[in-house]
Amino acid sequence: MSEIGGMNIQKLAETHGTPLVVYDENALRDKLTLFTKHFKSDFLETDVIYASKAFNCKAMISLIEEYGCCLDVVSGGELYTAFKAGYDCSKIFFHGNNKTPAEIKMALDFGVGTIIIDNEMEAAELAKQIQGTDKKVNVLLRVNPGIEAHTHEYIVTAHVDSKFGISMLDEEQIVNVIKMLDSCDNITYEGLHAHIGSQIFDKKAFSELVRKMFAFAAELKNAHGIEGTTINLGGGFAALYTAEDHPIPIDEVCAEILHTCEEENQKIGNLIRRICIEPGRSIVGEAGYNFYTVGYIKKTPNKLYAFVDGGMSDNIRPALYQAKYDAFIAGKENEAPYADYTIAGKCCESGDILIQSIALPEVETGDILVMKTTGAYGYSMASHYNKLALPAVVFVRDGQAREVIERETYDHLISLEK
Which of 70, 89, 254, 348 is catalytic? Predict the structure, then answer.
């Protein structure tokens, strides 16, 4: 794999420097095409909502708009980026368990279409701010269905003590929150939202979520007269990081969700009119690559290290989640393995290990190491630890490269300092 998007890897590294984040734009477009093509129903309205926390920048948001997708934001910063990108804010879904009063005001000022309410206090804050204005907003209520998807414990979001949403076990509180929202003329309650985790490899987890959500919507109507017609099923669609991963093909998981939704909707008298999903990682993950220049090589009694010029500052997932990645040395793809290397970053932290062990050809100073499937939660979780500057981000397509985020300079780093 000497090229990405028709561009030579060595040339990209020479032109743009390292560390460097590279996206194959055609791979992004292919994933967007798959979701928008296969998440369609003859019986239900459907929305594909890009979870922009996976990777949020103006160029990415413009691409999402080109494919007619809605947008999920979780902070004022993500919302502001979408606004400055010229995105239609009426198609934005604003998430978050602790939206500040300023963020709620920004959402109302920008004309955000849907706010996903996470808790009772947030509902009260929204009602207070919108009361007496001419602004209007739709809301979904995030509920916690108690389904635990089989992922790393730090990224399971629907267990009973999760910080997100109101447990379905607390039906009284859910009813009270919905009635509070519904009593405000400017707020339209539309339905329910849930999210059960990330990197889900079993499509039955989604089917189980659908059944619980549709049954709960029916319970709210039958027992309390609350009629919500939208169900947002969140995300969690997996990406391929290493040979150990077996993501469900997008057409299959979409078919499973749609079939179960249509089946369950019939059981409850076709109460639901619209269903939504929120893919993020599965759109951008596999399209992204991180380029690093190898520095020093170090041999210890039990390890052979290759040090690179980035690390946990541009990809914290290995340190945070013990996430696993595959990688290769540009120009040596066809060479036989020489040894097992530990790929370590340059941060002053023992945990700054990008790959614990990987068989590679002989690695030498100056080589370009390419980590695969870094497109989700790499740049978006990057930090300035050790005062390291953020890398540039480049989109490549059909032999052309465009820099969509410039490399930070040292002057950028201190620009806010007094």
Answer: 348
**Are the CB atoms for 116 and 94 separated by under 8 Å?**
yes
Q: What is the pLDDT of residues 178-223, one digit of tens each?
A: 999 999 999 999 999 999 988 999 899 999 999 999 999 999 999 9
* CB-facing half-sphere around the CA of 76: CA atoms within 13 A: 11
CA distance 293 to 314: 14
Mean pLDDT of the chain: 95
Examine the residue annotation and report whether 276 is marked as an active-site residue of this protein.
no
What tens digit of pLDDT does each residue of 105-127 get? Answer: 999 999 999 999 999 999 999 99
Torsion of CA 331, 337, 342, 346, to 10 degrees: -20
Domain boundaries, the chain: 39-282, 287-413
Phi, psi at residue 177, to the nearest 5°? -65, -45
Architecture of domain 39-282: Alpha-Beta Barrel (3.20)
The answer to whether 292 touches 18, Cβ cutoff 8 Å, is yes
**Domain 287-413 class in CATH:** mainly beta
The pLDDT assigned to 154 comes to 52
